[in-house]
Design a protein that fits this description.
heterodimer, A: 486 residues, mainly alpha, 2 domains, disordered C terminus, B: 18 helices, 5% strand
Amino acid sequence: MAGGAILTAVAIGVPWFAAVTLVAGVTAVTRSQPRVIGFAAALISVVASLFLLRAVPAGESLKEALMVLFSCLTLGATLMLPRRDCTSGTIGGILFLLGSTLLAYSTDDLRILLAAWIVSAVPFVREQWFGAATWRPRLGLLLSSAALAVAVALIAASGGTMSIGGLNRTSPGGMAVFGLLVAAVVFRKGICPAHAWVADAVEGGAAIPTALLLNGHFGAMLVARLIVPLFPNTARDLFPLLSYLALATALYVAIRALTENSPRRLLAYLALSQSACILAGLESQTMEGVTGALVHWIVVTVSTMGLFGIVRLLEVRFGENLTVARHLGLAEHAPRLAVFFIVFGLALVGLPGTLSFCSQDLLIHGTLASHPLTGLLLPISTAMNAVSVFRLFSRLFLGRRRTGFTVLADALPRERWILTAGALFVVFGGLFPNAIVARRAAEAAAVEQAFRLPEGSPDTVAKPATSYRESTSGFFERTGAVESVP
Amino acid sequence: MDFTQATLVFVVLAPGVVFGVLALLWLLGWVPPERVISRITGWMFSASIIALLPVLRSLAASGAPAVTVTFGNWFAVHDYRFPMVLMADRLSLPFLGMTVVLSGLIGRFSVTYLHREPGFFRFFLLLHLFAFGSLLAFAAGSFDLLVGGWELVGITSVLLIAFFQQRTAPVENALRVFGVYRACDIGLLAAVFAMHNWAGTASFAGGLPRLTGYRATTVCILLLLAAAGKAAQVPFSGWLPRAMEGPTPSSAIFYGAISIHAGAYLLLRVQPMLVQSGLASALVISVGVATAVYGTISGRVSADAKSSLAFASLTQVGVVFVEIGMGWKWVAVVHILGHATVRTLQFLRAPSMLHDYHQMHSAIGGETSEAGGYLEELFPERMQLWLYRWALDRGHLDTILDRFVIHPLMRLSGFFSGLDRMGLHRPRRERGEVVVPVSSAAPRGARQEGI
């Protein structure tokens, strides 16, 4: 137990310490080698998170898995940042975000969760750091933080513990707190009608750090870790509404993306649409849907990070005014970036042979099972997103070669290795999905089980009795049913 | 796994493995020379053809209904399973054979045809991926797995349409085709879900999921939507002439031989379910008749060889749909095999045939041969004119699609865009997006400044 606390402290504390060192510019090394410092700090977080993940059984490892995912993502970001962006301030901000996100994932205390939620948004509120010039991102982040703060205050006012585990199935604060938590999710996740701030943040802010902020998926985390366990009955009754809203968001932004000509905004809409699918899956209350959502979480995170990174690399090479209004023919100059882009893009929208094919398959089955008619919006929005991905790819990379540009500006070895690692992950994850799906299924069983348990039974622990054994054919098979044990 | 099963697995996986290895080597910085690619392709497809012989012998000698290889579940969650079953039965074996033979043939042809073409390596990479997708779709023992192969065929088709990426038209046409594919594939996804929901499985290795009544009709209609999209049947036929922008060998393999018949294979696979539903059968026949008539009339006004062949393909596939709707399963299978073979030959011969005609015309002093009579002459002149206009605009299918689907969707998107911008000054970055081109001078120093 103490070992776990130490590892958690290392995973969170090292990036924070490195961030402070970088921003303060304490030594010459921190000023001259920010990428090395950032890489080392993120690597330590990855290793610590991996040890944490190894120590917990399947079914109880959601937060540890998320910690590994986010620290790996940050590690990749430190490598992918173009030299122009790789300042002490940027790397420091990214590490600050890493520490805050891991704190939010790992904590069991509502007050600490609130603090991490607010702190993680700080770099994106300040225009001098990663913030956009427009007011909507600030308002979106402010409203989500305010909603969560009021909810936590109401829970505190109702007396009792502030531990998430201790509040399980007690509906603390009743409908008011439930509504505020849902509002926090809607604002932070960019669910319609509060979606516009995300595109503004991506458009006007720093691309890679903003992608990291979005890929923290705090809204989905709040649903899986807080709303469902604390308010199972209310969630069971009212989640269909939120699910419809998520599906409507997925479709709305998918349609919106069809005419968007700014690559960054278009990518933001794609990311929003696919993120809304995650929420729809979590709220489907089916094992397939919840598992699909958790797997899709990984896919969206890795793919969008790769896509935002590639767009930023293109901006650095070819100018910041990239447009989708005409064909730019960049594949001639950057063929490998083109291939990585189409792989990540199609992986985002369910290309067979990638992990998203499995996650989309599960998501579609889960949402159609819970909402047979509105569930159809999910494959429709995914089809539209696929068209937008291909449009973005074809306009950026295909078309007549740009005369006057003679330098081959393809991915540098540093960028190539990290993009290859990401591409291999989504491809091998798709070819051999069971290692990932089985673990997520065990975690999904806990989330799905929380819906089933009656409120007011705090001593009952929702523990999935599901286990996965390797069958004779080498594939995993599920044995036993999910049940509640005292 | 016995020898026959192993050969079936080899046939399906070999092109996928070749694709994966070549792609990885390219990412690591090695582009194999043309001779290496040509030899690997030749050996691989030759070995695949030989490997199919034991499967054929096993089905013929033992009288077994199918050679089946079960790998368990690819993944499983709760009651939902994704079965990993490969199967070669009397329906899929002809399609598997057609795929490996014609893909090998196209590979051999393309070695010469695309010699020193900048996209030589890319073409062969996509040919292998396409062969893998097709073989996976035809050898799938469940609709879940079939979807995987189906989608791979779609994406390779689109990437090959955009093969000549320097020109805008192929790239835009590829986007259009991709849109139609994805829209119609929703039917396949919904059908698979319906089978899981109603029958508990989408596997057909041990017989089709047992569905009757409105459930069978619903599934068949959803599958018809997917099949019509892939086979360019009315009302989705508009994409086929656009797809002719790709290189001739890819047009031959996709739209003369394999991809165009994948929709027919899907309907043949559910034929026992189809015969239970009068409504679905009638729809299949109607779509087939409409496409055959559309194809033959539009083909008559086509000015280029490849589009004419594409419309001829469309006509024949329409007739195949009619045969399937009528329940003539084996007539349809024989028709598909014959048509695919002849049409591939015609597509591959088209460029040299035009060259031959030009030579012949020059030799006889530029005189063109007298055209024969036309059946259209039997119609009144006004109707001939109307038909001519109708055919010239390809049945107005693209216009209808534009007017009633794409334009409203774009207008809706524009309306949403207006909503999103309410109360907001345009951000700094957007002010330049419409008019400012990508700088061609700035990047020269970009590497020094901070890539």
